[in-house]
Amino acid sequence: MYARAVVATVTAFLGTAALPSPTADDVPHNISTPVVVAHRGASSYAPENTLPAIDKAAELGFPWVENDVQRTRDGELVIIHDDTLKRTTNAEEVFPDRSPWKVKDFTAAEIARLDAGSWFSPAYANTRVPTLKDYLSRLEQDHEKLLLEVKNPELYPGIEQDILKTLDNEGWLDRPHLGRLIVQSFGADSIRTVHDLRPDITTAYLGAPAADRLPEYARFSDLINPSYGKVSAAYVSAVHDVTGPHGRRLGVFVWTVDDAEAARRSAGYGVDGLITNKPDVVREALHGQ
Ligand code: G3P
Ligand code: CA
C-alpha cells in the first residue's frame, strides 16, 4: 500500500507524459501520503552526498534521493552541498595553503584525492566526493530516483547546460528516466533556464513565494518546495490551486523534516513530499513501519 501511494502521488506531478507505461496503480487519485525523499542521501546514516548515502537510502527502502550539484575549476560536476570543501572533506589537511577551499577553485583531480567520509565516521574513511556521472551510475544500479539540486547557480554560469549535458549523456533524459527525475534550485533563474532548455523535465523552485506570486513561478516550475516551517494548510492549498507548466496542479515538497511531529504536521497540511535526513523516522511517523 505504501509503495502504491508513493507511485500515485509522484505520478500526480510527473504526469503520465513523463512516465513509462503507466499501469492502473499509477493513475493519480486522491492519495494524501507524501513521497519521502532521502535528503543528501540517507545523510543521518552515511556521509551526505556520497555513494554510500545513496546505497543506504536504497537499503532502507527509499527510492527517492536528493543531492546538490556544483562545478570544479576545470568543469567537472560534483556532488557536494557547501560552496567550500572544509566541512565535509579533509581539504584543509591535504591542501593547507588553499584557503578558503572553494569547490570552484579546485580541479576534479584534486577533489578526487579528498576523504569525504572520515568527518562523518571512521567507518567511511576514504569515501570520495562523487562526480555527477558516477552518482547517476550508482543511482541506476540502486534503482533510485533523483531530486537534483542546482546548488549556488550564481557561482557557476552555464551550469544548467552542463548538468543537462551530463544527464543526457548518462541516459537520464529519456522518457523512462524523466519519470524519476526532478530538478530544483533556490535560483528561480536557474530553474527557468532548465525549463526553457528542456520543458519535459519536472522542475521545482526552492522557496515559499507569496501566494499572489505563485502564477509567475508556475510558468517554469512544477513544484514549490519550501522549508517546512514556512508552510500551513492554507499555503499548501494555495499552491495546489495553481496550474503548473505541464497543465497539472503545482506540488509541494517540504524540507528538512526529521522528526515525527513535523512529519505528521506537514502531511496533515497536505504536502506531496517530505525531504528528510531520517527517512525511516518519517516513514514510522506516517505509517508505523
Ligand atoms: O532539498 C531541499 C534542501 O536540500 C534545501 O536546502 O541547504 O539542504 O540544500 P539545503
Ligand atoms: Ca539540497
What does this structure look like?
With 289 residues, the chain is an alpha/beta fold. It has a single domain, classed as Phosphatidylinositol (PI) phosphodiesterase (TIM Barrel, Alpha-Beta Barrel). Helix content is 34%, strand content 15%. It is built from 12 helices and 9 strands. The protein has helices at residues 2-14, 51-60, 91-94, 108-112, 132-141, 159-169, 175-178, 188-197, 214-217, 233-240, 260-269, 279-287; strands spanning 35-38, 64-71, 77-79, 145-150, 181-185, 202-206, 223-225, 251-254, 273-276. The chain has an 8-stranded parallel beta barrel, surrounded by 8 helices. A hairpin with a 5-residue loop joins strand 2 and strand 3 (77-79). Helix 11 (260-269) packs across helix 12 (279-287). It is globular and about 50 Å long. Residues 1-9 and 15-31 have low confidence and may be disordered. Residues 39, 66, 68, 81, 149, 206, 255, 275 line the site of SN-glycerol-3-phosphate.
Give the structure's gist in a few sentences.
With 289 residues, this protein is α/β, with parallel strands linked by helices.
Choose one word for the global shape.
globular
Order of helices and strands: HEHEEHHHEHHEHEHEHEHEH
Instruction: Note the gap between the termini.
Output: 12 Å
What is the chains' assembly state?
single chain
CATH architecture: Alpha-Beta Barrel
- How do the strands of the widest beta sheet line up side by side? 1-2-4-5-6-7-8-9
Specify Rg, calculated over alpha carbons: 18 Å
Class per helix and strand makeup? alpha/beta
Bound ligand species: SN-glycerol-3-phosphate, calcium ion
| Approximate strand percentage | 5-15%
- Tally of DSSP β-strands: 9
The CATH superfamily is Phosphatidylinositol (PI) phosphodiesterase
What low-confidence regions span 5 or more consecutive residues with pLDDT below 50?
Answer: 1-9, 15-31
